[in-house]
Amino acid sequence: MGDRENLNRLRWRCTRRAMLEMDLLLGEFLDRIFPTLDPEQVDAFVTLADMEDLELWPLINGSRECTDAVQAEVVALLRNVRVK
Amino acid sequence: MSKLIVPVRKFDAVIVGAGGSGLRAAIQLSEAGLKTAVLSKVFPTRSHTVAAQGGVSASLGNSEEDHWHWHMYDTVKGSDWLGDQDAIEYMCRMAPEVVVELEHFGMPFDRTDEGKIYQRPFGGHMSNFGEKPVRRACAAADRTGHAMLHALYQRNVRANTQFFVEWMALDLIRDDSGQVLGVIALEMETGEVVAFHTKATVFATGGAGRIFYSSTNAFINTGDGLGMAARAGIALEDMEFWQFHPTGVAGAGVLITEGVRGEGGILRNSTNERFMERYAPNAKDLASRDVVSRAMVTEINEGRGCGPNKDFVLLDITHLDPATIMKRLPGIREISIQFAGIDPIKAPIPVVPTCHYQMGGVPTNYKGQVVADDGTPVKGFYAAGEVACASVHGANRLGTNSLLDLLVFGKSSGDSVIDDLKSGAIGLKELPENFADRTMARLHRLDTQTGGADVNATRLELQRTMQKHCGVFRFKEMLAEGVAKILDIEKAVARTEIKDKSQVWNTARVEALELDNLIEVAKATMISAEARKESRGAHVRDDAPDTAANPNGRDDIHWHKHTLWHRDGNRLDYKPVIMKPLSVESIALKTRSY
């Protein structure tokens, strides 16, 4: 698959989730912050986006700590997303 | 001709949707040895069932005395007497059985010290026919829906259910007799269109909460099953009834729990007035959901909304001690910061009444069989969960009855498929010659459209129109204007244009196809709501007020009946509410008050 297909698939998996909160946050992240990530961070984001909502949400709202250093960087960026 | 263009795959049954009801139906079918396909736009455990946190109700009586008949009474009353009493009796009687079954599937319910399923009270659930609250809700912490999906999914893996993940069903296949012979679906990864030719088709596609601008529903809830059913000539029942939550974050829709007002949160208008004092002098901000929602809409409609468009009110907790907010309302501060850009310790949160749950849907009986207007089953077609209208929720759903609905009618629809196969009522019939023509024409139109309407802009216009003209509090003239506007938007939907014409992972195409479904639900909702000239449950009209003759605006003489909207000509029919339960006395009409 090419870049367009990969990005579209990622967009689908970020914006068709179980919880509205996650649709909004990950969709916004993809538009604004994803293009600025380095390759390691891109991989970390894809891993995070593959998680289920009730695993990912506690990382974002800070009730659970992220053990992987690069994932923690991306989670910090996700935490700063403002949906408007 | 269609067979030359569209590959055909044969199964005993296809289930569309892999949330709670789809997975529950699939267990029944796969464990009976039927070759079963489940289609889903997403991986099953990402279905919107996850968002249901509160619990599932069953009169187990683990903590105190309870009885299914009391549960039935509460559900009939909650429905404002629009629910069918045969289906409600069936659901409430089956509840203990399906909950214990779920426990055996591995559901990690909270437990009492004696090891029984722990039960807690929930709004509207009472003992002894409305006497006092009863502990009836079974939960797995605050992740009941999530845990339920995992238990059901694992059971399906064991039973060899075949999953087709990231597939979108596009249309039903029916023959000249009206029998349903399967669905046509699109695989997103390849863009390939495939026919699933089956003996039975079960719709478990969930609701369509995304027709409203402000909705707590995830983006996935685009009413695909309702759109497919309507295009195939199936009526949609009671679509004017939508449950709203008073406090969703304006713009985003994310829910702010009632607990915020419980802890002292105050609603204010643009003049900083605590307006609930005028509407509910005693209960004020803690009045019931419908009273608070109507007051908020009245403030906005009378020009006292906040923000540049005066289209929201404010939920103020700035007077609370920050330590209390952090301790008693964890998560609310993060939600407010991320989705409203507001730190609620420093400034009030913008909120609006927000769509939460769809009571209407594809008409079914309590066996999960889809029924025609005269009540006879549509051969080969079944539905369960939010897409279906059995009707157990009537004009208003009780909390925790939605997860129960998934389990009971997911199971009963599966059992009906098995019974109908055994009796010979259904079987594999030849596909009609041109079974895919309509679908392929729709896809061809989308691929070749030029100078058409933008999908996102059209969806947004649809959502704003529904919110403004058919929201939580409804007005005669606004509804009439709303009908004209929605029919205009329908014309734009018929000529949407996408720039991306590729096959592989073309999400623009999928979003345009979702909009084709949203518009059917929007028409059904607006037209049914405009026509129903009373207030009942969640459908509240300004011109049907509370009077001695019609308490709460409910007019049983003229409107104690189900609406049936037909796509063909936007025709409305009505059918009687089933007042006769299966085994007990009818619960007679009465004013609904708590």
Automatic annotation (TrEMBL), chain A:
Q: Which InterPro entries match?
A: SDH, SDH_sf, SdhE_FAD_assembly_factor
A GO biological process held by the record = succinate metabolic process
A cellular-component GO term for this protein:
cytoplasm
Name the residues that span the membrane.
none
Q: What is its main location?
A: cytoplasm
Mind listing the UniProt keywords for this protein, alphabetically? Chaperone, Cytoplasm
Q: Chaperone as a keyword? A: yes
One Pfam family named in its UniProt record: Sdh5
Superkingdom of this entry's organism? Bacteria
Q: Where in the cell?
A: Cytoplasm
Keyword Chaperone (UniProt): yes
So what family is this one in? Belongs to the SdhE FAD assembly factor family.
Q: What is this protein called?
A: FAD assembly factor SdhE
What is the source species? Candidatus Accumulibacter vicinus
Q: What is the lineage of its organism?
A: Bacteria, Pseudomonadati, Pseudomonadota, Betaproteobacteria, Candidatus Accumulibacter
From TrEMBL, chain B:
Q: Where does substrate bind?
A: 245, 257, 356, 397
Q: Which family does it belong to?
A: Belongs to the FAD-dependent oxidoreductase 2 family. FRD/SDH subfamily.
The entry's localization annotation reads:
Cell inner membrane
Cofactor requirement = FAD
Q: How is the cofactor bound?
A: Flavinylated by SdhE, about 5% flavinylation occurs in the absence of SdhE.
Pathway membership: Carbohydrate metabolism; tricarboxylic acid cycle; fumarate from succinate (bacterial route): step 1/1
**Where does the record place the Fumarate reductase/succinate dehydrogenase flavoprotein-like C-terminal domain?**
459-594
CC annotations in GO:
plasma membrane
Question: Superkingdom of the source?
Answer: Bacteria
Name the EC number(s).
1.3.5.1
Catalysed reactions, as listed in the record: a quinone + succinate = fumarate + a quinol
GO molecular-function terms, A-Z: electron transfer activity; flavin adenine dinucleotide binding; succinate dehydrogenase (quinone) activity
Residues recorded as binding FAD, renumbered to this chain, are 17-22, 40-55, 224, 386, 402-403
Q: What membrane topology is annotated for this entry?
A: Peripheral membrane protein
Q: Name one Pfam family in it.
A: FAD_binding_2
| Residues annotated with Tele-8alpha-FAD histidine modification | 48
Name of this chain's protein: Succinate dehydrogenase flavoprotein subunit
Which top-level enzyme class is recorded in the Swiss-Prot or TrEMBL entry? oxidoreductase
User: Keywords assigned by UniProt?
Assistant: Cell inner membrane, Cell membrane, Electron transport, FAD, Flavoprotein, Membrane, Oxidoreductase, Transport, Tricarboxylic acid cycle
Catalytic site positions: 289
Q: Where is the FAD-dependent oxidoreductase 2 FAD-binding domain?
A: 12-403
Q: GO biological process annotations for this chain's record?
A: anaerobic respiration; electron transport chain; tricarboxylic acid cycle
Disordered: annotated segments: 533-555
Could you tell me where the Basic and acidic residues compositional bias lies? 533-544
